[in-house]
Each structure stands twice: as structure tokens, then as C-alpha cells.
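Quick note —
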Amino acid sequence: MIVLGAKGHAKDLLVVLNETANEDINFTFFDDFTKPEEHLFLGEYLILHNFSEIDFSLNPRFVSAIGGPILRRQMVEKFVKAGGIYKTVISNQAAIGSLDVNIGKGCNIMPFVFISNNVQIGSGCLINVGAYLHHDVVIGDYCDVSPGAKILGRVKIGNNCSIGSGAVILPNVILGDNVTVGAGAVVVKNCLNEDTIIGVPGKTKNKTE
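Predicted structure written out below.
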């Protein structure tokens, strides 16, 4: 299996991959940002640096360990176009409701995540360690929910959003596409346009400057 990315999140995701994968699966990392002389990830796993080195007819499955939503989407689309099959990774230590929960293709669901019932998560999302998604939450494609973030009931989040570590989004809030919520922010009202929300209570960056 190919793992996209050989930086920080790849180290975290590898813990989950080793926890959940069958023993006969071998991991190869792809990262065209690493130095060419860096051939091994963590001293053990082969790093490929060129797209031409991948034979998708032999090894079509891949997962993403790229932290940023925009770059992750770009790389995933490139791999899918070339014949790759985008796989989801869900930690055995995540608590996930059994009723009306839909987790999209290619998501990373990390350890100690809580996902309630009636939750919809789009494709390519990263729900990081210890994040909470409460009932009736809807999250779009290629979003990041950072460690310890709490998304409360009936929140709706658009595509390509990034929710910072420890942030809290209060019930019934709606966020549009490409919204960034800063670490520790408390979001109390809707933000339908592309913007950054910071502070307690959360304010859009344009209004705080």
C-alpha cells in the first residue's frame, strides 16, 4: 500500500496503519518534497520521490498522510486519475456510533475520536486524535478536525475547512467552504464566507484587525 506523505502526520498515521492492517501488507511512502537522498521513512520504509516510480497495476491502494486539505485533495486526485484506489483508515480506538453514520472515502479517523450517531463526514477528511463530533453533524469533503476539537450538535461544515486544535463549535453553527478556525477558538455564530475565525468568542479575522 502506498502512503502519501512522509512528514509529521505520516508518523501518526503509521501507528494506526500498523494497528489495523493485516500482517502481510507492506507500506511504501511517497513524498516528492523529501530530499532525494532520503530513501527510508523512520529508517524502515521505502520512500518514493517520483510519480513515475509507482505501478498502480501492481499496487493500486493508497492512503493519505498529508495534513493540509488543499494539497491532500490535489495529490489524491492525481493518484486516483492514475488508477489508484483511495482507502479509509479508522483506528480501532475510535468510538463511532452505529446508527446513520457515513464516513467518506479516504478519511483518516485517528485514536480516541468520538463520532456520535447521525453524523455525515465527506471524502478525504482527517479527524485527528481526541476530536469529538456530536449528533447530527455534517462535514464536507477534505476537512481537517485537529486534536481535541469539539464539534457540537447539528453543526454543518463545508468543504476544505480546517478546525484548529482544541477549538469548540457550538450547536447549530454553519460554516461555509474554506473556513479556518484557529486553535482554541469558540465559534458561536455562522461564517458562510471563506474566512478565519479566532478568539473567544470567535470572531472573523477581518473584524479583529
